[in-house]
């Protein structure tokens, strides 16, 4: 999906919500554990219930890899289900990859070609040649970690390198990479006030903003500093939505949580 198509979906659905599929066997309703593929059953129920309130889904790959081959199969079934039933929804593999060029190319093929995700998160630490193999793919986005939502972001990302904080240096440098129009950036909702400065460097690019919900980030603050005339935001919430209830009507409750966020987003869009 192109950035323009994603923007169209956002205005059509009055939502820039991304639902995180961080599916954990220890947190899903216990009655699902007797199913053949509990992870897929849970994801399917969440997707069916929440799809009208969001524009994107973001499985965090760690939750699937932790289950070995079974987890990878559940991931594949989930992405195939999204493609066949809800082809207008944008998909993000939150995998935080990046390696020497020829290895990055294999990661890119895994997520873009084999699994068919629209985007993948990538760590910038290994530099240009570790990221450009992802950027080569047409109509696919590479979402570069810029300023993450966790406390440890202050260990390195805000260190000064010359005149700039490291995260700003990452953003500025990456703008010169081949096919940089395919870049999006991760900025944590817990660091919303930083978005004002970030928007001075990248006024147009989409930002993936995790941290609303369980991590305490504020949607209002994110919009205050980060929204553009074309929105330019995908705000993710995972645990607060998908684990809102562990009873038999968990999907309905998740839908209500997603709808509440979507309503807030619709109000923000009206201000544009
Ligand atoms: O800076 C980052 C980058 C990625 N994440 C991921 O987003 C979700 C957040 O989940 P919540 O349950 O809504 O807190 C999760 O997959 C993280 O690994 C992030 O939180 N911060």
Automatic annotation (TrEMBL):
Q: What are this entry's molecular-function GO terms?
A: orotidine-5'-phosphate decarboxylase activity
Q: Which InterPro entries match?
A: Aldolase_TIM (IPR013785), OMPdecase_type-2 (IPR011995), OMPdeCOase_dom (IPR001754), RibuloseP-bd_barrel (IPR011060)
Keywords recorded for this protein, A-Z: Decarboxylase, Lyase, Pyrimidine biosynthesis
Enzyme Commission code: 4.1.1.23
- CDD domains given in the database record: OMP_decarboxylase_like
* First-level EC class: lyase
Q: Which pathway is this protein assigned to?
A: Pyrimidine metabolism; UMP biosynthesis via de novo pathway; UMP from orotate: step 2/2
> Which reaction equation describes what this protein catalyses?
orotidine 5'-phosphate + H(+) = UMP + CO2
Q: What is this protein called?
A: Orotidine-5'-phosphate decarboxylase
Which organism encodes this protein? Christiangramia gaetbulicola
